[in-house]
Design goal:
By secondary structure, the chain is of the alpha/beta class. The protein has 14 helices and 9 strands.
Length: about 325
Amino acid sequence: MNRPPFRDIPWARPGAIGLAPLAGYSDPPMRLLCFEYGADFAVTEMVSAEGLVRGGEATRRLLDRLPGEGPVGVQLFGADPGALAEAARIAAETGPGFIDLNFGCPVRKVIRQGAGAALMRDVGLISRIAGAVVAAVPLPVTAKIRSGWSEAEEAFIEAGRALEEAGCSAVTLHPRYRTQQFGGTADWSHLARLRAALSIPVIASGDVTDLGSYRRIIGITGCEIVMIGRGAFGRPWIFGDIREGLAGGVEPLRPLRERAAAIVRLARMERAWKGERQAVVEMRKHYRWFLRGIPGARDYRARLAGAETLGEVEAVIGELAAETE
C-alpha cells in the first residue's frame, strides 16, 4: 500500500519535537496547549483496540481532537492483530496524522492483557500486529517500544528490525526496561544502537526536560526527532523554549503570571471538554507541576486541591500571582 515515507511528512522533519502519549495527561486540552507553545505533533492517550472495536463510547472519545490542534497520532494498544487492524481502520476514519502502536506501556493492567511492554517478550507477535495494521490503513504507522522486559531480556534491536520489516514508518524507543517502570535513568545509548541498526527514523524519548538535555540526547543518539513526555508536565512551553534556545536565544524564565494564565487556560479548556466537576478534579494532578519551585506554593496547592469550582480555582491562582509579583 502506498503511503508517504515518514521523512516526507512535514511535521516529521528533522528537528521536530512532539508531545509523547501520556495516559491521563495528553488529552485534547493538554495537547492544544502544547501546540500553542510550539509542539510539532502529538499523540493521543492510549486507546484500547478491543474497546474501540466493541464501540465503547468512552474509548471512541479518545480519538477526538480540538480545533487548532496540529497533527495528532492515535496510539492503539492490544495483543490481537485482527482487533488492532480493525481499530486502526476505525481510527483512520477520524483523520489522524498517523497510527502509533504501543509496545512499551509498563502499567500492570495493560501487561495483564498481554499488551504494552509484555509484547517485548514476543517479537513475533509484534511483527504480526504491525504487519496487520500497516496493511489495514493508508496512513504512516509508527510504534513505541521499550528496551525490553528486563536487562536480561533486552529486545529493542530485534523488535525495531521486525517493525521496520513489517512496514512501520518510524520507531520510538523509550530506553528503559519494563522492570524500571519510569525510575532510574533512560539509557540513551540504546537509542544510538537502534538508530544504527535501522534505516527508518528512530524517535528519541526519555528524560528530556530542557534545552540542555535535548542537546545531549541529539548529540549522543543522532536521532533527528524527539518526543517529550513528563518533561512537558507543568511546562507546555518547553517545545518553544527549546526551539528558541537552538536559534541562539536563551531559554526564557516563565514568570508566574504566565504560569497562572496557562493553568487557567487549561482548566477552562478542560471544563469545556469534560464538564466543570470532572475538570476541577482532574486539574489537581497538574498543580504540583505548574507551581513547582515557587515559594509558598504548597499551601496554594492544598487550596487548589480542595476547590470545587473553576471560579474557586481562578481565585486562588489570581491570589498566588498577585502575591508573588
